[in-house]
Amino acid sequence: MLLKEVKLIQNQNDRQFPFTLPILRDFHKLSFKKPITILVGENGSGKSTFLEGIAASSDLPVAGGVELSQDKEMDHAQTLAKALKLTWMQKTKNGFFLRAEDFISFVRRIKQMKQEAEEELRNIEEEYKNKSAFAKGLASMPHARTIAELKHLYDEGLDVRSHGESYLDYFQARVRPNGLYLLDEPETPLSPMRQLSLISIILDAVKQGSQFIIITHSPIIMALPDADIYSFDVHPPQLIQYEEIEHVQITKNFLDSPQSFLRHL
């Protein structure tokens, strides 16, 4: 375990978002006793805001490359972070905070980095054509290194593969041992089969000492073995069993008899 507990130590201005959220009015603390914790609940229940507060307080990098402190839309996360106290068993700088929409920005940034490095190499070829190979090599080195590192991490490139494939490639390349990973609806770009692949990546990382806190609406991701599941539909959040989750019950009943649902629409 890395992160042991999140405690709300200040909630004085309940007229200011995010403290207007019902989940924070009765919130005291949330303990993490297992390497995988799953947060479930309806949209608007406060799950994402809570996770954003943890991300800001822990100072984890954001997968999209824009730090939370620089994202004006995330000012509420900084506000909440100041009111949270994180208790660690082992503080780590490994890991990241990922929202599904951040991944698209990340892919674009990686593509831009590669294009800029390739453009610089072309410029150097022209500028150094009458200079020594040694001088040209020195000038080319940082840009060639950028391209080599991107190829090592992402092979032919995240931008040339399907969204789901590149998403999994990102996890394979970036998940490290002893890291804290905060994932907000990581299933969004993934088919059911790809979600199983993501589960495999997560379980391998847990074996290497990593910890995951995951928001999800996917009954597949919710089924991660030996995970603690907290419902944000009750205040304060309470532990819940997989079979008790409303999303799981509705999905199961729908698959058993889709027409019994659809004929009422």
TrEMBL record:
Gene3D superfamilies membership: P-loop containing nucleotide triphosphate hydrolases
GO biological process entries: double-strand break repair; iron ion transport
Keywords from the UniProt entry: ATP-binding, Cell membrane, Coiled coil, Ion transport, Iron, Iron transport, Membrane, Nucleotide-binding, Transport
Any GO CC annotation of this UniProt entry: plasma membrane
SMART domains cross-referenced by the UniProt entry: AAA
PROSITE patterns per the UniProt record, alphabetical: ABC_TRANSPORTER_2 (PS50893)
Keyword set includes Methyltransferase: no
Keyword Lipoprotein part of the UniProt annotation: no
One Pfam family cited in the UniProt record for this chain: AAA_23
Residues of the ABC transporter domain: 9-258
Topology of this chain in the membrane: Peripheral membrane protein
A GO molecular-function descriptor: ATP binding
Coiled-coil intervals, chain numbering: 107-134
Localization annotation: Cell membrane
PANTHER family per record: IRON(3+)-HYDROXAMATE IMPORT ATP-BINDING PROTEIN FHUC
Protein name per UniProt: AAA family ATPase
Organism in which the protein naturally occurs: Lederbergia citrisecunda
